[in-house]
Amino acid sequence: LVxxxxxxxxxxxxxxxxxxxxxAGRLEVFHSGSWGTVCDDSWDIKDAHVVCRQLQCGVxxxxxxxxxWFGPGSGPIWxxxxxxxxxxxxxxxxxxxxxxxxxxxxxxxxxxxxxDHVPLRLSGGEGxxxxxxxxxxxxxxxxxxxxxxxxxxxxVVCRQLGCGAALRADGNSVFGAGEGVVWLNRVECRGxxxxxxxxxxxxxxxxxxxxxxxxxxxxxxxxNVRLVDGHSRCAGTVEVHHRGQWGTVCDEEWxxxxxxxxxxxxxxxxxxxxxxxxxFGPGSGPIWxTFVLCTGSESTLKNCGSFGWGKNNCDHSKDAGxxxxxxxxxxxxxHIYIRFLCFHTDF
Length: 347
Ligand SMILES: *[C@@H]1O[C@H](CO)[C@@H](O)[C@H](O)[C@H]1NC(C)=O
Ligand SMILES: *[C@@H]1O[C@H](CO)[C@@H](O)[C@H](O)[C@H]1NC(C)=O
Hints:
This protein is α+β, with helices and mostly antiparallel strands. It has 3 domains: 110 residues, SRCR-like domain (Mac-2 Binding Protein); 101 residues, Roll (Mac-2 Binding Protein), CATH 3.10.250; 106 residues, Mac-2 Binding Protein (Roll), CATH 3.10.250. It has 4 helices and 20 strands. β3 and β4 form a beta hairpin. It is elongated. 39% of the residues are buried. One 2-acetamido-2-deoxy-beta-D-glucopyranose binds next to loops. The site of one 2-acetamido-2-deoxy-beta-D-glucopyranose has 3 residues, from loops.
């Protein structure tokens, strides 16, 4: 054990730097009191697999689409001509000519991207599972152009971020127009890929994308509210997600303004009715909210005023419910259907 950069480092440590995460970057190895790089002469995917395994980052990705350039390092070049079988558990089981023996410069520094690397984030939305998609590449976070952006692409991003299924994929900048570079365009996933990098896509500095057209998405785990026992996802007893647990809402002061927020949050159209007295049957679990006071314009029920989480004298016989209109699309057909019925009744 030795101290470097004010941190304890084990002899024989390796690390990946310059990617914004621990599972991708320029490979550095610790030797003789300092971090140094590895030259890419005879470097291949088998060597990269060993690095990923040693760092517990999955397997090395070979797809050249991956943002894989992490720039030249500095300091000593410790290793060159590294030869692994691919099944070793550590780089130190592989062969090489020895410490500091090389004929390289820092332009040849090895970079590795492992499968557990997630150079993606969602910004400007509500929480980490909803918002504008951003990609980390060449040490800069950039956005994604929305040409051909759809729900199959969002599915892969939600999976990679561990955010459940994709609910929506949108273009234009509802979550706010991002400044700066646009790294990705023409993402064309089938929807079942494990990583975004498995999909056909174009990764470069896209100066041809208007900054008003950023890809954005909403994954299932971003949702804080749901309607249950109403035979439709747009009607039922209201449940809110708080501290990892779903609970109900008491009907004191429950009205259409509150229902409007729930319907909008669920992308279920307009509120039709705000119901009390456990209209859809008594719920279970904690009763999270009561005296909910929404103005109607909040983006989530959690942002409305209330008596305080879990503070109430209610029981489940007072659970609040909501009926939303559903999507405008269905309303249109119901409207046509009713006209059709009226016409035939008159007849
Ligand atoms: C790796 O595979 C080779 C043959 O492909 C074998 O001889 C060797 O014992 C294996 N090493 C480990 C650490 O499993
Ligand atoms: C992208 O290209 C534009 C125009 O050529 C340039 O001004 C900008 O610095 C580039 N950005 C990055 C991060 O490479």
